[in-house]
User: Fold MORN5 protein from Penelope pileata.
Amino acid sequence: RMEGWGSYTLPTGTEYRGELRDGMFHGPGALLFPGGGRFVAVWHRGVPTEGKFIFADGLEYSAERWQYCDGYDRRFLTEIRGGLKPAGISQLTNLDPPRKIPQGCYDCGDGFYNPETRVIIDYNLRFLRNADDEEHEWIVRTCRKAEDEHKPSP
Assistant:
C-alpha cells in the first residue's frame, strides 16, 4: 500500500499530492483538478477533516459570506481586484479579453460546445464529452455564444 508523501493521478485526470497512509489520503494534501482548481485539505483515512476549494483564478470558496458573483454583486474576480471598466465597455467573463469562441459554438465553462454535433471540446480543442439533452438545453439557455460575424452593425 502507498505510504508517505506522494502523488496519485485518478482516471479523470485529477491528481492528489500529499501524505498517504495505508493506501489512503491521510494528512495534508491537495486534489488538483484538470481545469486548474484545487481542494487543499487535511485528510483522515481518506476523508477531508478541514479544507478549502481554490478556483483556477485564485479565488477561495467560502460557504459563509459567499458574495462573489451573487445577486447583489455581479462583478468578476478580475473586476474586484482590478476595478471596473469605463462606462460602455462590458467585461463578459472573468478572463479579459474573453476567449474567442469558434463560430456557432458556446463557451460552457470547461470547453466549447457545438450544438450541431453535441460535442464538447476543451480549450485545447481535445474531445471532452458528448452532451445529453439536459446539458444541451442548459448550455444553449445560459452560456455565452460566439458572436455572429454577419450581424449588422448598429
In short: The beta strands are 4-9, 15-21, 24-32, 38-44, 47-54, 106-107, 112-114, 119-121, 127-130, 144-145. The first strand starts at residue 4 and ends at 9. The chain is about 10% helix and 35% strand.
